[in-house]
Amino acid sequence: MQVLVTNDDGIDSPGLTVLAEAALAAGHEVAVVAPHRQYSGASAALTAQETEGQLVFVDARPPGLPEQVRAFGVKAAPGLIGFVASFGAFGFRPDLVMSGINLGANTGRATLHSGTVGAALAAASHGIRSMAVSIAAGDPQHWQTARRVTDHALAWLTSCEDPDDRVLNVNVPDVAPDRLRGIRPATLASFGAVQARVKELETGYVQLTYTGVEAEEEPGTDHYLLARGWATLTMLRAPVADDAGLTLPRVDGTQSAAAGHEGEPLVDVSAGTVMSTGADAPAGEIDEE
User: Fold this and answer.
1) Which residue ranges does the record annotate as region Disordered (predicted)?
2) pLDDT digits over 96-131, tens only?
3) Rounded to 5 degrees, what angle do the CA atoms 62, 68, 73 make?
């Protein structure tokens, strides 16, 4: 199995090495492609620095990465890395994308904003099995615990049936291996580990403050269990249409806006501009057909 390892903390993060070593130990081929700098909070953004319409690469490696593993940085958001990887942009289409290990937890509905999770979701939306791994510390002291949990999560993910457009989101407490209580499936908490608030609002600027969120009494959620020494596993889904209960008003009193009819006049819709992924695609476009 060919594995692409990425993150949102940048190419110099030791978390990349932990994931790469876990994939190597499981017998997979590994390449590391990560942003050249931190992209925390980038979600699945498709942003990048281009030179003449081409992605800019950086000659860099995460610390301690085994020499046989190919690695380089890209001046691009992690979501874009996961996205273009599905088109073979780095020399192969990965069978699995592993994103992380993020410095800090990615729990609750706040995972929407995570670049670590965004890279995995971008790959999963194109049919690539994906996982995101985070450790609940800005300066982790127990990488061996994260590696232990990653080994179990990776074995489960590669042995289960095709997870379609889902991502396995893994959170690990920064505790010694003998203090880890175990691994539990979990639902999403109502928010997450960190919450932003408007501290000051004046003409011309807004000042934000970021604070840790106490583990509220939400038994069974990722943030609740993580705060109590458990590693958590949560399945996330890439965006899907959900029109349950959707009722639209009639347009001009004639028909429902939800009704479609063949032969109706077409309107121009801009497709925007994104990165080229190959010589067959015109500059600034991606051909997904």
Assistant:
1) 255-289
2) 999 999 999 999 998 999 999 999 999 999 999 999
3) 35
Identify whether 95 is part of a domain.
yes
Domain count, the chain: 1
For residue 211, report the phi and psi dihedrals to the nearest 5 degrees: -135, 150
CA–CA distance, 215 with 235 (Å, rounded to integer): 20
Supply the DSSP string of 210-272, one letter for each residue: EEE----S-TTBHHHHHTTTEEEEEEEE------TT---PEETTTEETT---TTPPP------
By C-alpha distance, which of 6, 198, 41 is closest to 113?
A: 41
> Residue 131: which of 47, 45, 23, 33 has the closest Cα?
23
Amino acid at 117: V
The residue segments making up the domain with residue 60 are: 2-237
- Which residues are within 8 A (CB) of 18 and not within 5 positions of it... i.e. 6 or more apart? 101, 143, 146, 147, 150
* Strands 255-256 and 250-251, bridge-based pairing: antiparallel
In a domain, 249, yes or no: no
User: pTM of the prediction?
Assistant: 0.80
- In Å, what is the CA distance from 62 to each residue of 6, 11, 15, 79, 234? 11, 5, 8, 19, 27
> What's 80's domain CATH number?
3.40.1210.10
pLDDT, tens digit (0-9, with 9 covering 90-100), for 224-278 = 999 999 999 999 988 877 777 777 776 665 555 555 555 667 766 665 554 444 4
pLDDT at 214 over 70: no
